[in-house]
Amino acid sequence: MLWANWTGTSTVPSLALYPHQWSWDSAFIAIGLRHLSPLRAQLELETLLAAQWGDGRVPHIVFNDAVPPGAYFPGPDFWRSATAGRRAGAPGGVQTSGIVQPPVHALAAWLVHRADPGLSRARSFLARLRPRLAAWHRYLMTARDAGGAGLAAVLHPWEQGMDNSPCWDGPLSRVEPADPGAFRRADLDHGAPGDRPTDTDYGRYVRLAAQYRDQGYEDAGRDGTRRDPGAFSVEDPAFNALLITSEYALALIEAELDGTECRSSERRERARALTDTLVARLWDPARALFLCRDLRSDRLIAERGVTGLIPLVLPALPPAVTAALVRTARGPHFGLGGATRLVPSYDLTGPAFDPRRYWRGPAWFNTNWLVAKGLRLHGELPLADRLRAAMLDAADASDFAEYVDPYTGAGRGARRFGWTAALTLDLLR
Ligand code: 9WN
């Protein structure tokens, strides 16, 4: 199935709904693909990172010129990377979006290398990727440090990847939706409206992205030039936990390439310090969960999303925080090992919970894979095993659905979805 989604240089998340290359999808896909073809897994990441911008950002979409315009909205004519992104260093030979997605790439690169170190060394895979990965992390830790505390901020819900999560309802309410007549939603040609974000959500996504584009994709962080952080500026637990995880992976990459621990121990130290910052800025002891911080109000957003469980992947989390997170995962809000089969994307008891609608309740395979990885890391083996079995069942029964009902495992959204197939493969190895 992954071969059907392969374009020759990368893998599309879904042939009809998402016919281009997506950033964090490609990282998860490479993690699975390495078991079938380490070479293709390397190419997947190389293709994505070849579209990196001069300022270090890795765009969330790399467009395939062979796909008809209008097959996906917003396409290259909306983002206008070559012109609007010129000052930020958008590449010339390829069209991309101008926003980013969670940095899973160094983790993926390390795992892909480990799948076939001989091939990786022969192709200088890590040596070629290393400066790009380092520049990517530098961009996030400086230009995106809008809060000034060291964490990266996301400027758009599409950047965090859980597009219509109720966590964004508050910050998004400040955004005046774009005129619905000004754009056409190609996603509704392939997805049921009840499974997708609403038209009002889309109006707000379009407004925010157009504003960022019209400001030349300039950032508000330490080496950015834009002073106003914009209507939407949020520190997100999953995004930053993945940045920290990828910092650890980049430390391993550097140690492998340099043959010394010297530079990599500095990076590991930074990853540990960022873990402390994550706890200081985003941990909510009352809810026993990590929350998102709205940088406009400088307050935590009182919504329980799966994003708040993802820091379980961090090795240096204080043990009391880890234990509390595991309790929260098992409790009434996420139901792991009890009411639900897979971890939902949003609080089962929350007022906005909807088991069908995209990131407002359904369970996704990438987030479940990360939670399972975190549980395993912290020794919660029976729970991790149970989650793994549930994921394998749901993936098989749903023909690799994009997301599933967290209670029943019934498939929703696209089928034959890239990261669902790839991460299933990873669970089987
Ligand atoms: C916008 C590709 C992407 C995923 C995101 C998911 C969805 C896009 C969309 O699809 O977002 O980037 O058009 O809805 O929310 O996580 O990377 O699979």
TrEMBL record:
Residues 18-420 form the Mannosylglycerate hydrolase MGH1-like glycoside hydrolase domain. InterPro entries: 6-hairpin_glycosidase_sf (IPR008928), 6hp_glycosidase-like_sf (IPR012341), Glycoside_hydrolase_63 (IPR004888), MGH1-like_GH (IPR054491). This is Mannosylglycerate hydrolase MGH1-like glycoside hydrolase domain-containing protein. Transmembrane segments: none annotated. Belongs to the glycosyl hydrolase 63 family. It comes from Streptomyces alboniger. Keywords: Glycosidase, Hydrolase. One of its GO terms (biological process) is protein N-linked glycosylation. Residues 182-201 have a biased composition (Basic and acidic residues). GO terms for molecular function: Glc3Man9GlcNAc2 oligosaccharide glucosidase activity. It comes from the Bacteria. The keyword Aminoacyl-tRNA synthetase does not apply.
